[in-house]
Design brief:
Blueprint lengths: L2 H18 L20 E8 L4 H4 E2 L4 H6 L17 E2 L5 E2 L4 H8 L3 E8 L7 H10 L9 H6 L9 E4 L14 E2 L12 H15 L10 H23 L12 H15 L5 E7 L15 H20 L6 E7 L19 E6 L6 E2 L23 E2 H12 L21
Parallel strand pairs: 1-8, 1-9, 5-11, 5-12, 6-7, 6-8
Antiparallel strand pairs: 2-4, 3-4, 5-10, 9-10
C-alpha cells in the first residue's frame, strides 16, 4: 500500500471516527469524558411498523375481542392449549409466543401498559414515529432523550444507539454514536489488510507533529485514540454471554447481546436505543400459531429480553427496558387475515425496579362499538408522555419532567 492509498484509507478512517465521536467537531472519543456510573440505564426498543397491541397483550376477558377477531383472536388461557394466551391478571394475557417474557412477569419484572397513545393521533408511520420520539406533535429538532442528555454534565458517552443512524429520540445538542452492528467495525475487508493498515496507521500517527501546523497534532492524537476505541467496541462484541443467556440468532438478538455488553463494560451508559421492525401486518398476521408473522417477532422480543436480563446478572439491578410502537392496529381483523393502521397499542416496561402487573391511567377503554375510537380503533387510556414522565422522574431522576415534554404535565401511571 503506497502513501497515497494509505492517506485515502486514513481519511475514510477519520470520517468513520466522526461516527464513533458522535459526528461533528464537538464529539468526544470513547475514552474521554467517562462519566461515573449512576447505576441506572434506560433501554428503548422501538417496535417499528405499528405493533398490534391487542394480540400482544390479549384482553381475553372481553367477549367483544373474539367477535372482532374470529380468526386472529388468541384463545383464553388454558393449560391444555399451547396456542392460548399466557394469563396475567385474569383479564389480560400475553401472546403464547412470549413464554420467556411471561416468566419475567411472574417474577414481578414486567409492567404491561395497555391502550397507550396520544390525542388526535396520526396513522402515518413516519409522523407517528416522529411524535413518539420527539414527545411532541409540533415540529422539533430534538428528541425527548436528546433533551434529557442536554441537562447532564459529561453526557457525550452516556448514550449509544445500536441502530442505522441516530434515532430521533436521541437527537439534540449532545452527539450520540449509532452503530447497528459492533461486529462490523473494521478498517479493511481481510485480516491481512487489517493488520497492514493498523501497522501503517500506528507508524503514521506516531510521527512527530508537523511544526507550525494548526491541526496535525490533534489529527494524529485522534487517529491513535480511534484505534483504541474501535478495539474497545470490538471487544464488547466478543464478550461472552453469562448465566446461560441464549439470544435469538437474529440481528435483533445480536444487538441485544451487544447492548448487554455495553452496559457491562461501559460504566456510565444511561441510554441505549434499538429497533425491531416489521410489525406492519396488513395481511397474514397470524393468531396464536408460532409460525405467524407477528408471533415470530413477539418471540424474538420475548426471548431476547429474557436473555438480556439473564446475561446482565447483577448489572441488571438498574436497567429498565421500554418497548414502544408508533400506533396499534384496527380492533377488527381485515379480510386479508391481518389488521390495518389503528390508534392505541400496548407498551411494555421490563426490569427489576418495575411494579409488576397491568397499569393504566384511565383503565381499559373497552372494545364495544360505542367504546371504540371512530368505531374502529382501540381508544387511548394512557398518554405515552405519562410513561415518559414517570421514567424521567422516578428512574432518571429528573425533578421537572414537563420541562422535557413540551410542557406536558404527566400523570402517574404507577409502573415504577
Amino acid at each position: 500500500m503506497d502513501r497515497r492509498t494509505f492517506l485515502g484509507q486514513a481519511m475514510k478512517h477519520l470520517a468513520f471516527g466522526s461516527l464513533l465521536m458522535g459526528g461533528g467537531p464537538g464529539g468526544l472519543l470513547l475514552s474521554q469524558a467517562r462519566a461515573a456510573a449512576t447505576g441506572r440505564t434506560l433501554v428503548v426498543v422501538f417496535l417499528r411498523g405499528g405493533c398490534d397491541g391487542l394480540n400482544m397483550l390479549v384482553p381475553h376477558g372481553e367477549d367483544a375481542y373474539y367477535s372482532l377477531r374470529p380468526t386472529l383472536g388468541i384463545a383464553p388461557p388454558s393449560a391444555g392449549n399451547p396456542l392460548s394466551a399466557l394469563n396475567l391478571d385474569g383479564f389480560f394475557g400475553l401472546h403464547p409466543s412470549m413464554a420467556a417474557l411471561h416468566g419475567l412477569y411472574q417474577n414481578g419484572w414486567v409492567a404491561a401498559l395497555p391502550a397507550v397513545h396520544y390525542p388526535s393521533a396520526s396513522r402515518s408511520h413516519f409522523v407517528g414515529q416522529d411524535i413518539i420520539e420527539n414527545a411532541t406533535a409540533l415540529p422539533s429538532t430534538t428528541g425527548w432523550l436528546g433533551r434529557y442528555l442536554a441537562t447532564l454534565s459529561g453526557a457525550e458517552q452516556k448514550a449509544f444507539a445500536l441502530t442505522v443512524g441516530v434515532p430521533r429520540s436521541l437527537l439534540g445538542s449532545v452527539p450520540v454514536s449509532a452503530i447497528a452492528d459492533l461486529s462490523s467495525l473494521s478498517l479493511a475487508a481481510t485480516k491481512a489488510d487489517q493488520g497492514l493498515l493498523a501497522a501503517m496507521m500506528a507508524s503514521e500517527y506516531s510521527r512527530a507533529p508537523i511544526v507550525g501546523h494548526p491541526y496535525d497534532a490533534g489529527l494524529r492524537a485522534a487517529g491513535r485514540q480511534l484505534q483504541i476505541d474501535i478495539a474497545e467496541l470490538q471487544n464488547v462484541n466478543a464478550l461472552p454471554t453469562a448465566n446461560g443467556a441464549a439470544y435469538p440468532a437474529t440481528p435483533f438478538g445480536r444487538q441485544m447481546r451487544q447492548a448487554a455488553g455495553l452496559i457491562k463494560t461501559r460504566p456510565g451508559t444511561e441510554l441505549l436505543a434499538l429497533d425491531l421492525g416489521g410489525w406492519d401486518h396488513h395481511r397474514a398476521q397470524g393468531g396464536g400459531q408460532p409460525d405467524g408473522a407477528q408471533a415470530k417477532l413477539l418471540n424474538q422480543l420475548s426471548e431476547a429480553t429474557a436473555a438480556f436480563y439473564a446475561d446482565l446478572g447483577s448489572a441488571a439491578s438498574g436497567v429498565l427496558l421500554l418497548a414502544v410502537t408508533e400506533f396499534g392496529r384496527t380492533a377488527a381483523e381485515n379480510s386479508s387475515g391481518g389488521t390495518d393502521h389503528g390508534n392505541a397499542s400496548s407498551w411494555l416496561a421490563v426490569g427489576p425496579m418495575v411494579n409488576g402487573g397491568v397499569h393504566s391511567v384511565a383503565g381499559w377503554p373497552g372494545l364495544a362499538p360505542t367504546q371504540l375510537d371512530e368505531g374502529r380503533y382501540l381508544a387511548q387510556s394512557t398518554d405515552y408522555r405519562d410513561i415518559y414522565g414517570e421514567i424521567l422522574s422516578r428512574h432518571l431522576g429528573v425533578p421537572n419532567p414537563s420541562s422535557l415534554l413540551a410542557g406536558y404535565a404527566a400523570q402517574t401511571v404507577g409502573f415504577l
